[in-house]
Structures are given as structure tokens and as C-alpha cells.
Amino acid sequence: MPPPHSVPSSGGSVDILTLLGGQGGDEVHDEAFGFELLNRWQRDLPLDPEPFARIAEAYGRPPRDVLSALRRLQREGAISRVGAVLTPAAFGASTLAALSVPQDRVESVAGYISLMSEVNHNYAREHEYNLWFVLTAGERRQIDAALQRIEDATGAAPLDLPMLEGYHLDLGFDLRGPEARAARSVDLTRARVNLDSRQWRLLAALEQGLPLVPRPFARLGMRADMHETEVIEQLRHWLSTGAIRRIGIVVHHHELGIRANAMCVWDVPDARAAEAGRRIAALPGVNLCYRRARVSERWHYNLYCMIHGREREAVLQTRERAVAEAGIADCPSEVLFSTRRYKQRGARYAER
């Protein structure tokens, strides 16, 4: 039996409306409404004192319908949270790490890593390096200490792969299928912020997601000793600088039938990496694209993208388009499909 927080990440496609629950009569309409909320409001949540009322107005429905649907979808596992997706390292430090673990120890090592507060994502992947996890913390020294604890516990030094450039950082999903969209690049230097004590309290409240109440920003303000309008203006500013990537519904894509995902990596000459990354980032079906540090002979890849799809073949087809569009067929590469999700949550910078 898989350990806690573990969900297989392969399987057949599923009718997404079936996953939203309900049968017959008025509930069929509610399924369609739930799907519309999930698909439309993954970003651009109104920065308004009553954001759910503004959403409801767009459909000619009362605000309670929106709140009721979001609570149900969260309860049923379709939604992780409604809130902000933060830019890696904008509020602190972040890195991608990996371990090569003997197969008979994968479950126990993954369980240990998932319990660490610095870890917000933890996946098994098809590769010699078979455990991949993301660590975030307020300061880089906390990540270094966490990596050392992992090495001490496992006897293996993790790959440490900090991000150098971000070409598309979003991880939103079009549930009707990949569509053309603008890449959401980020200037990591411009996105970096320094916080005062009230802003740290706001970040701590924001990391838990917006409360599903009529005036969620007022509720956040109560925890941060900030007025509702101050909260909204601060969030608007963080969006404008790129410190926050988006504010909206954060879905559990696996639970919604998007069950295949692969991390695709290439060893691209540094002089070509940015242009190749921008070309890949603009392709439908690519959810993340960035350049990371190399680790000498242990790991020489520097260009990464994440591709999600309902089936493996769809992911591989998108990868082939990426190779052709970026002109990197000559570059060494690998495809690492995920096989199990051990942990997935929003980044935490303020909770420690």
C-alpha cells in the first residue's frame, strides 16, 4: 500500500465531469458550473473585496453558488486550494533536488523526505535518479541544512539544481486540452522581495490559501494586522513584479484525469539555452520551462520543461514538437515520467 500523500500517476483517461460529482436533474448543471470554475478561474481571481461575488456576477448566479461549488470541489479533491502561486525564490530560497535510491528503499526514503517541512513536491520518476523533490525556505542555509539531513539519513548526496532563468512558470491547466497561450516568463531578480513583519504575516496566511468566505482578503488582513485594501494592494504589487505568478484555483491535475507527466531535460549550449527555452515555453501543453544549474559530471542537463497530458503518448508528442520548435535535436536529452506522487502542496516560506 502506498504511504501517506502517495497517489499513483498513471492510468486511463477519465471523463472530467464524472470526477466533479453529482447525477441527474439540477446537479448536472452544477457539474458544468464546477467545470467552468475550475477551467476559467485558475488565474485572474478578482482582486476585489468580494472576489467570489464578482465571479458569480459573470454567470448571473448568487455568490453562495460559487462558494458552495468551490468548497465541494476542494472537499472532493479536485482543488488543492484557492490562492496564490508564488515564484520560486522570490520570497526566499528554492531548489530542485534528486536522489538515486535503491528500488527496495524508495518508499521509506520518499516517506522520510515528504515529512520534511522544506519539501513541497516529491515525485518518483523513471530514471536512475528516481526521487525528485522541491525544497523551499526563507533562507538558502535552511535548504542546505535540509539537504545535509537527507544525505546523512540516506548516505547519498542529492543533486542540487537551483533555477537560473524562468521561461514559463505557471502550472495552470486547460482542462479542455492544450491551447495556445502566452508564455509567462519571470525576471527572478525583479521578482525578489524583502518583507517587513506585517508582510511576512500576510505571506504566512496566504500560503494556506484564501479562506472560502465572502471577504477573504479581510480575513487575511486580520491575521497580518493589515486592512483589507492594504492586502489587495500588496497582492496586486506582488503580481506586477512577478513575485506571485497567479492568483486563482490551484487544481489537483491528477484527480482531474491529467495523469501523465514528464520532466524533459536537455544539455543545451548555454549560448542557445535562453532562445530554446523561450520557444519551448510558448508551446501548448508545456506547463513549466526553465534553465537550472548543471552539476558537473553527475548531471549535465540545464534546460527543463514539464509536460502534462492525459496519456503518455500525448506527452511524447508535445516533447517532439518542442524539440523541433527549439532546434535542439542535436542536444543530449532524457524524458523522466513520474510514477508516483508522494507530496504536492504550495511552497512554504513563512511557516518556519
TrEMBL record:
Organism domain of life: Bacteria
Classification via InterPro entries: AsnC_trans_reg2, HTH-Siroheme_Decarb, NirdL-like_HTH
Pathway given in the UniProt record: Porphyrin-containing compound metabolism
Key words of the record: Lyase
E.C. code: 4.1.1.111
Family indicated by similarity: Belongs to the Ahb/Nir family.
Protein name: siroheme decarboxylase
